[in-house]
Amino acid sequence: MDVVRVMEALAGQGVTVSFKADAERMREGVKPWTFVASGAPFREDLLVRTDAVSVEACLDVCLPRLREFGLVIPE
User: Fold this and answer.
1) String of b and e for 38-71 (b: at least 16 CB within 10 Å)?
2) Strand pairing partners for 50?
3) Separation between Cα atoms, residue 6 and residue 23, nearest integer Å
4) Is the pTM higher than 0.90?
5) Which pick of 2, 3, 6, 10 has the fewest CB atoms within 10 Å?
6) Mean pLDDT of 54-72
7) pLDDT, tens digit, for every residue of 1-46?
8) Residue 3 and residue 23: Cα distance in Å, rounded?
C-alpha cells in the first residue's frame, strides 16, 4: 500500500492526517505508531484514531472505518 497516496487522497477530501512514532513506546515495544484522521468530512468532535505496531497496522484498522464514512481511498 502506498501510504503517501492514501494520505494525499484523504487530504484531497478535506481530511487532516497525522502519523506519529513515539520513541518511548518504541523502546518499550508497545504500539509506537499513532494514526489520527480528522477534519471537514467528520462532525466537529469526531476523529478516527488508533495506536499500532506499524504504519501498515494503523491503516489496516483505520481505512475501513474511513471508508464507512464514505471516503474514497486507493487500494
Assistant:
1) beeebeeeeebebbbeeeeebbeebbeebeeeeb
2) 35
3) 24
4) no
5) 2
6) 93
7) 799 999 999 999 999 999 999 999 999 999 999 999 998 777 777 8
8) 21
The predicted pLDDT at position 67 comes to 93
**Residue 74 CB burial class (10 angstroms; 0-12, 13-18, ≥19):** exposed
Helix then strand then coil, in percent of the chain rounded to 5, is 40, 25, 35
Q: Rounded CA gap, 58 and 54, in Å?
A: 6
Nearest CA to 63 among 48, 42, 53, 46? 48
The full set of domain ranges for the chain reads 3-69
Round to whole Å and give the CA distance between 37 and 61.
Answer: 12
Residue 19 in grid coordinates: 502519523
Question: What is the pLDDT at residue 12?
Answer: 94
